[in-house]
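ok so I'm stuck.
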Amino acid sequence: VFSNAVSAGLYAHSNFSQKILQKDVRETGEFCKIMNDLFDSVNSYHLKSDEKYKCAISSTSCHIMYYKDMIKWFSKLSVVNKTGKTVTNQIRCI
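replied:
not stuck anymore, here's the structure
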């Protein structure tokens, strides 16, 4: 589910969806892309790769800065219910 293909499909769908859904679909596509990159970065087993997060972590790779950015991103992540109320504190997995 958290893949580049799903992300691209959601972005494409958002271009043709009703105005009400466009933002939600686009944001879901962005979330899938972020999670794909994060999984790639921790599942890498190649020394080198064409995809920047699928290579081994080193002192010169982009991983350390990326992980710092991900810590900031996750700290700002919130869960909102159907009425728009933030329910992040009720979710244990974040």
